[in-house]
Amino acid sequence: FLRSFTNRRTDQYGGSAENRARLPLEIIDIALKHWKPYQIGMKLSPTSRVQDMFDEFPVETYGYLLKELSKRNIGFVELAESRH
Fold first, then answer.
1. For each of the chain's 84 residues, which pLDDT tens digit applies?
2. To bridge 17 with a disulfide, which of 3, 12, 64, 83 should be the other Cys (CB 3.0-4.6 Å)?
3. Domain residue spans in the chain?
4. In whole angstroms, what is the distance from residue 49 CA to residue 25 CA?
5. Contact (CB, 8 A) for 54 and 61
6. How many CA within 13 A on the CB side of residue 51?
7. How much is the pTM?
């Protein structure tokens, strides 16, 4: 959902960085109804390429997502890169 190159949706989950981040943020919001913020985390790989999956604008996409996650005060965000 996050990667602009593979997310070609034309609904509220595609297009802009805000729309592509909608699903992970909705999942976090649901999790926050059941667990404390410090019990929730997310692992992201902003610039990893796996086959044809990558993001053309990782600073925009992940900058927006990280800003929104910060507002939710979750326990951690792990940034990782694959070595494929």
1. 887 778 889 999 988 999 999 999 999 999 999 999 999 999 998 887 777 777 787 899 999 999 999 999 999 999 988 765
2. 64
3. 17-79
4. 22
5. no
6. 1
7. 0.86
What are the tokens at 75? 């326990």
Exposure string over 34-66, b if 16+ CB within 10 A, otherwise e: eeeeeebebebbbebeeeeebbeebeebbebbb
Per the structure block, which two tokens stand in for 3?
């990667």
Token pair belonging to 26 = 């909705």
C-alpha span between 38 and 74 (Å, rounded) = 5
